[in-house]
Specification:
Number of strands: 15
CATH superfamily of the largest domain: Peptidase M41
Structural class: alpha/beta
Helix content: 40-55%
Radius of gyration: 42 Å
CATH topology of the largest domain: Methane Monooxygenase Hydroxylase, Chain G, domain 1
Number of helices: 22
Distance between the termini: 41 Å
Strand content: 5-15%
Low-confidence stretches: 1-18, 157-168, 298-302, 554-560, 630-652
Amino acid sequence: MAQSPQGGSPPPRRSSPWRSLQFLLPVAIFLALNILVANVFFPPASPKTITIPYNRFVTEVQANDVTSITATGDSIEGTFKRPTGASDSSKNRALHFTTQVPAFAGGQLESLLSAHNVTINAQNPNPPTSALVEILYSFGPTLLFLVFFVWLMRRTTASAGGGLFSLGRSQARLYDPEKPATTFADVAGIEEAKEELEEIVDFLRQPGKYQRLGGSIPKGVLLVGLPGTGKTLLARAVAGEAGVPFFSISASEFIEMVVGVGASRVRDLFNKAKAAAPAIIFIDELDAVGRSRSVGPSFGGHDEREQTLNQILTEMDGFDSREGVIVLAATNRADVLDSALLRPGRFDRRVMVQPPDRVGRAAILRIHTKGVPLAADVDLDALASRTPGLVGAELRNLVNEAALTAARRNRAAVTMDDFTESLEKVLLGAARRIVMSTEDRERTAYHESGHALLGLLVPEADPVRRVSIIPRGRALGVTVQAPVDDRQNYPETYLRARIVGALGGRAAEQLVYGVVTTGAESDLQQVTNIARQMVVRWGMSPKIGPLNLSDDPEQQTMMISQRPYSEATAQVIDSEVRRIVDECFAEAVNLLEQNRDKLQALTTALLREESLEEAQILRVTGLPPKPVGPEPVPRPEKEPVATAHDTINEGGLPSAR
């Protein structure tokens, strides 16, 4: 978005006294270089001079061959009447000479010179320094330092907007309200958040509508959500819809190495916003300065971050909501914010920006594909159903990768194959061109077939969309599973189905080869994570009961490594986790034994085709497809659609195989 100062065209700049210095300084430097070159590198030509011994000098004086001399201490320079050499046999002759008077010569030299009519001149061996040279030696370095300082200040002013004396000025960017680049039409998939912010927009457009009834708009609105869900985009859309100045800054930009600069920048930012009211202040990544002051080590209690936080609290208390200044802030760590920020009168409204549901993902894909030519086979609704848990930034990246893939293939439009290829690349990484041995390739095929077959056999498991033995990232193969609908609650049967499916690869290897390999490392990480959370977090163990024994996030922030249960309880937790995993592994082995022919058929097809889509998998195994579920509901946690052997969900629940 274009940045422009408020109030239209900027005022004319006044001429600065330093502008003449910008012209005179190069001239002075040029003259100094000219003098240096003329006198040092190319000095004026001097007459030829020879050095003669002192006794030769006396002989020439006695022969009346010396016209004049100039004495400077013990050194004598003189002129002959005719060109003479340093000795009688010398061929190097000149009219000018120099010699050195020995200390034992005494006072006889003066009488000798007078007797032979030699003109005697004398010079001070220590002549006084001129006033100009004294001034240059005394004030020259200072003047050069001042000139350099002024030049550095002007360069800093031009590049940072304020110079060395503007450390306390806010570096917030002001976006032009006359040219809004983002509106609510550019935001999709987070309809609930948009509805909550429409009141803010309406207040900025019609403040009298609320003030006449004594109402006041919230001073601060905190946008909370996972990275990439569109918090910054939503804040810009609010400014675009309201048509007011929008001051945007990251919280980390307040902090400087000089103590007190952060607080000064906060004051300057709020003063600018008040002068431009109605206006919006947007502070991104608020947790950079807004962390709780009671958590973690404190160095004297008055460090730069804490001073900045105190100034933000003071400023939000100091302005009236009727002034038309609203503070928007974004963070993905609301749990670590200071409680003083969240009390009424400051950030008294919190807007949760959730990952989009299936309908929202389809709307986001339509927005990002407006300028992308799509082939006739592209179904954005089907693509949205295959991307549960992906947020707006990831969907935008998916569309961009698909366009790049189509361009590499010299296609006129982006096809569904391009989106499928890009989805795997985004989630798992680019395909690796490695040479696998026949044994490793066959073992990988059995491994992935075990995952895929159990995904079809277990009723509560997510449907299998694709299986491949093409190496990607750190994985030698991948099984893509996507839920029929967006889940909000996870029943115990679903979690057990996830564990059974994750153990399918190891169970297939043990069933076919009798030995297991390291290929199930990530599978075991997912299995352990789900089983432990079932016991300590979700109360799905009869021996532990309905207790939440997970670690306190605040204690983790304070670096306190203390478990909220005893050692005896820890042993029970370990035994219950082991029990759940053993039961699920036994079920996986039993299902694969009963369907050994389907496992073999799927493995053979996979070795032949390398990648199989859902319809091909169902045709090879002869199993029916999963039933279609109801319309989706929003989910609070991110759940990636596909995983390799090394993919684990950020929301606490490992993603489906």
